[in-house]
Amino acid sequence: MQIILVLFMAATLAVVVIGVVAMAINGKLNKNHSNKLMRLRVLFQAIALLVFVIIIWLARN
Fold this sequence. Notes:
Strand content: under 5%
Structural class: mainly alpha
């Protein structure tokens, strides 16, 4: 479970870095994909948070 959590945290970080680089370059990538990157980041964060809650819940039981 912890490996899955780390993977989704890394995926979230990667999407954030891609989004920041795209904004810094201010190129076509930012204009075409900024909304998709934001949705992907939110999705990865939600999954990571859900896995974290499951890990805590399993540790208590």
